[in-house]
Amino acid sequence: MPTYSHSQLSTYETCPYQYKLAYIQKIKIDIEGIEAFMGSRVHDALEKLYRDLKLIKLNTLEELLAFYHQSWEKHWNGTIQIVRKEYSPEDYRRLGEKCITDYYNRYSPFDQGRTLGLEETIYFPLEEEKGYWIRGVIDRLALLNHSILEIHDYKTSSRLPTQRDVQSDRQLAFYQMGVEGKWKDIQEIKLVWHYLVFDAEIQSLRTPDELRQLRQETMDLIRKIESDRDFTPRESPLCDWCDYQSLCPKRRHRIVAESLPPNEYLQEEGVTLINRYVELKEKKGILIGEMDAEIARVEEALFAYAQREELEAIYGSGHVAKIKVEVKEKYPLKGDPQRRALDEFIKNAGKWMEVSDLNPWMLARILERGGWPPSLAQKVREFSTVEKNRTITLSKLKERD
User: Residue 340 and which of 305, 359, 374, 399 are 20 to 30 A apart at CA?
Assistant: First the structure.
């Protein structure tokens, strides 16, 4: 039966092509980002903390950090990828240590409820008729005051979401659907996010209506996925962290080219073609700029010649240029500080209805026709600015018989 997870659905929303590679073609990539690696090691340490507490063993902070560093050394390998080159593995390692230290100091002695499950797997039907199921793993499930169930999730993200963000979060709401009805006397299910980098806790409650809406939205998304035939790649800032860049048509050439030695990189066909293309485009831009500047200079000379000789048409050997110079009055538009003063002046003169709610074009036309008294027209013109429009229309001369 079709089974989906929050991360699977999120992958499709981020990039359908990545979804296709990961979940349809099931291509495994032996690359892990340093952020995910650090997050896993922090999760391991917090899981140990609460697992040992079930055996009435409280680790000291020093013991927990020692476990964290041992786990780091044990799992570290050459496939760990660091996108942000300005940071070293040790920078991330220290950040993970800080996350554990802040959490330990905040919640010690860890008596906020009883832990019911760690890395608890949930699996429930989203819609039984269609046979769609949702799966997930809860970081920690806790019981508070015998009646409140808490779903805890640990995040090592470098971004702290708003309350509004978490209120629309799908992951923990899925977990709530998966645990509902499993324990008696539960009066409330509380969703709790721990953003460890910020030493912040954010909580949320979901109503039955919100869960029903999420169920419908998820079904709509699944239908969209299952009807997709293209799985088009979608670029975003997250592409730098994608494990499938070497297979993506939008990123593959970059990965291949950058992996070449410097002496081979500049000889690679694609790199060579792009560099030549850019060179030609830049030359074209320079030439166009030079030509536009020369055309502007000739146009100015034509206007000056036409004015001096009082001409409206200038003939060449095969073309004629018609010279047109128009002087137009422009009146302030809405938003211009002068517009309100002009409105009031026209209204006080009793001419408001004649200019169609002060249509600037209509006002200029009325004054041009001389329909208003000269003194009034002169006053109105004080609100205008003069704009000179010059045009050259070039036509080919007809051949003579």
Answer: 374
**Amino acid 346: pLDDT:** 83
Rg (CA), the chain: 36
Is there a contact between 4 and 133 (Cβ–Cβ < 8 Å)?
yes
Give the domain ranges of the chain: 268-311, 312-396
- CA angle, corner 58, sides to 99 and 106, nearest 5? 35
Separation of alpha carbons 54 and 167, rounded Å: 31
Residue 197: CA count within 13 A, CB half-sphere? 14
Name 243's bridge partners. Answer: none
User: Which residues neighbour 26 within 8 Å (Cβ) at sequence distance 6 or greater?
Assistant: none
Write out the two tokens for 136.
């997930």
**Omega within 30 of 0 (cis) for the link into 109:** yes
Query: Which residues are CB-neighbours of 216 under 8 A, at least 6 positions away?
Result: none
pLDDT over 90, % of the chain: 66
Residue 183's identity, in one-letter code, is W
Closest CA to 18 of 26, 2, 102: 26
pLDDT of residue 135: 96
17 token code pair: 């092509």
- Mean pLDDT on 261-289: 91
Collapsing DSSP states into helix, strand and coil, what is residue 394? Answer: strand
The token pair that represents 77 in the structure block: 């390998």
pTM for this prediction: 0.72
Number of H helices, E strands in the chain: 14, 11
Q: Which residue has the higher pLDDT, 134 or 363?
A: 134
Outline where 28-183 has alpha helix (H). Answer: 34-54, 61-75, 89-107, 163-167, 171-179
**Short-list 220, 258, 219, 251, CA closest to 18:** 251
Q: Where are the alpha helices (DSSP H) in 55-88?
A: 61-75
Contact status, residue 337 vs residue 330, Cβ threshold 8 Å: no
How far apart are alpha carbons 257 and 64 in whole angstroms?
43
**Residue type at 267?**
Q
pLDDT at 401: 54
